[in-house]
Amino acid sequence: MLRRSLLSALAAALALTLPPAAPRAQERSITVASTTSTEQSGLFGHILPAFTKGSGIAVRVVALGTGQALDVGRRGDADVVFVHDRAAEEAFLAEGFATRRHPVMYNDFVLVGPRADLAGARGDDIATALKRIAEKKAPFVSRGDRSGTHAAELRLWQMAGIDPATGRGAWYREIGQGMGPALNTAAASGAYLLSDRGTWISFRNRQDLRILTEGDKRLFNQYGVMLVNPARHGHVKAAEGQAFIDWLVSKEGQDAIAAYQIDGEQLFFPNVGEPNG
Predict the structure, then answer these.
(1) Are 90 and 79 a contacting pair, CB within 8 Å?
(2) What burial class does residue 181 get, using C-beta atoms within 10 Å of its C-beta: 0-12 exposed, 13-18 middle, 19+ buried?
(3) Of 184, 201, 219, which marks where a domain is finished?
(4) Count of domains forming the chain
(5) pLDDT-derived band of residue 26, with 50, 70 and 90 as boundaries?
(6) Both 152 and 229 in a single domain?
(7) Checking CA distances to 161, which of 13, 127, 138, 221 falls within 20 to 30 Å?
(8) DSSP state of 160
(9) Residue-wise pLDDT tens digits, 79-113
(10) Where do the DSSP E strands lie in the chain?
């Protein structure tokens, strides 16, 4: 009993005299609010390990439609936004939630639909294709989620002189989900759909869907990246977030983007410094 008491007293004395254990090194990390297309296409799975290995900065991706991703940035719940809707990005800048936008890469949108193409949408003119779909009241799936793809789809309908809302609940179906679920819905129902090419290439559940309209310059799809303004949200990890942006626009980052292919097809094309970015 006496021995145990002496040992306890000795341990207590040592605890008072020894310095506290050094705290564990805090992991450096950032949160990136981005689009479902960059995530579901597999791009982030390809490029982020290289960035983290070189920088020691882990990246957590919150994949949402562009509108929602920008809202995450507005709330200060992300350090970086990486999206694809130029008008929405410029509004984000004008509101002071970022101070600079960096063009990173591009691909294009494609109109996919059933192989039989009963609406006659096949070709290289997207406005004509959409007019024919509306005239035939052929089933069309819209993401309906304020994403960059949804915004592009609505602009294209407007260019075609059509208000698709008049067909809502009949031939025009809004699902409020990301690109992958939208493609699954279109595949299951034999519907038409606007998709970014990157997600289409990586998508395996195509069933009877085929690319029907492509090559129209109005289908161009640019991506940009912005650091959330630390003056608006003081907790933003500005140094780490800027390191990620600097890497994306560097030769190493641009080469990593260009190297991402599926079955020999390149999904995204880096274009830092090009006038159309």
Answers:
(1) no
(2) middle
(3) 219
(4) 2
(5) low
(6) no
(7) 221
(8) T
(9) 999 999 999 999 999 999 999 999 999 999 999 99
(10) 28-35, 57-64, 80-83, 102-114, 140-142, 172-174, 192-196, 209-213, 220-227, 261-262, 265-266, 269-270
